[in-house]
User: Fold this.
Amino acid sequence: MQLIEKVKGFLGDPSKEFNLNRDEAPEEAVKYYLIIAGIYSLLSAIVFALIYTMVSPLVNNYGLLTQPYGITEIFSNFFMSFILMLIGVFIWGTILYIFAFALGGRKGFIKTIRAAMYATTPLALIGWIPLLGAIGWIWVCALDIIGLHVYQDISPGRAIAAVIISSLLLFVTVLVVLIVIITTIVPMVLEGISV
Assistant:
């Protein structure tokens, strides 16, 4: 029941919930994050399977998506999503920490990672739903701001700046990687050159 209370707190009154959990052991945040990352990953894998089975017959005429989709693929998607969530929270937390530190946050790396872990609560609830995922990410950023303000003892303005700068850096990095993939790897695959 403590998990459900935390989820309600981070969604309903995040400032109070961040303050309540300010001094708890880092392991508590890790346990919480593992559970919500698992929920998100499972729901994402199921939704992807449903979408695949609906779209597959429509595009089979073009020779795409001809492989059947079963429990193995669902497990594979769950596992990949879960691993990416674990890696992603540490990458995101590190970027947040760098900019929070640059803007005066001196309470440590672990507190920023904890804030990032707790801030993903909305993503676990709605991030797996097509088209609502974007709202989940915006909500995550809002909770990151509150978390940095509480855990790093920086002003709300500095917390906002840290999250905006971190988000822009991440967006530009992803954009550059996508451009590189689209301009180099995709043409090689289309020409039959193995990557």
